[in-house]
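Page 42, continued from yesterday. The earlier attempt failed because a stray header line got pasted into the input along with the sequence. Redoing it now with the clean sequence only.
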Amino acid sequence: MAVDGTWFEGDGGGVGPDRSPAVVRRRKDELMRRAGSASTVREVFDLLTTRLPGIVPYSSAVWTAADPDSGLPSSPTLWEAGTSGNRRRWRQDVDRVEVGDYVALGRIARSTRARRARPRELRAVLACENSPWALVSLRREADERPFTAADEQLVAGLSEPLGRQVRRLVRAGLRRAPDGRLPAHPGLLVFDTRLDLVATGDDVAPWLSSLGDETHVASAFGLPVPMWVVAAAARALQSAQEGGHGRVGVRAATMSEQWLFAQASVTRGPDGRPDRVVVALDAARPSAIAPVIAAAHGISVREREVIGHLVTGTGTSAIADSLGISAHTVRDHMKSILHKFGASSRAEPTALLLGTHRPL
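This time it went through. Structure tokens are written below.
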């Protein structure tokens, strides 16, 4: 898909592959201006599909939100159509647990949050303050030129500002009261070790339909199984095969901005080998959402420790004794926490973390 000739506002009204530094800079500024006006994460993804090709051309892409705690793919997702070969390759990447590469990207220095996984695939993480908020895979066709170091640098430079915008939207969604549309019972999906869906629970369809995802894996059940759910199952299976506990949890937002928790757990056969992966979709409890809330408000590791005591009603002196710091330092942390939450008292962040908040 040719994109270099696309006209973009602010380029002087012409049509052509002008990629001079001044033009690219204007396009980046326009992209960020529009991202600042987006009202949902999906709107940011839609914006990127129209604006990013003028900065870094590509032929197809996958955009997915990320769980800021685990770094794994989450919801919503958006697939930009390319060749069927690209779609098959993305599924193969999940089967090989290539999502681990994205997890690693989200934890390293800002300048390297984009990298060329293959000559014609560029992977990136949109992250803010070391928490990942979205994952990106950009691809070009075999007859197109490979990505360059300059392309990598351009996308890496967008990681922090775009990650900040996605975080802003997640934070806004967390402050809205749940509307109660999720089913009362968990939805179950059972995969074999080839990651093919082999069984489902009765209540799974409403859970899947609540998600605004476009990257799906075909199944014999006719259900649109999101790719990120398969990725969670793949990570759990990898953990079990490598001697780990075989469990992975992913937090995801529905289209109505309610939060669910996908728990992938590996079962074992009589020989002790992994034989199934069960993914349970259920409404996220406050304890599951607390890491997202903390990351969305830029809460530091030490501040999270203070908050952990706060929600149990622990007083300042007791918090200081428990953490081995002075009461004065605890109060400084509290001031910082209240500032980040935009709160005037301890009750407000505590209520948000305990799930008893109301719309602002």
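Notes: Confidence is low (pLDDT under 50) at residues 1-16.
Reminder to self: strip header lines before submitting.
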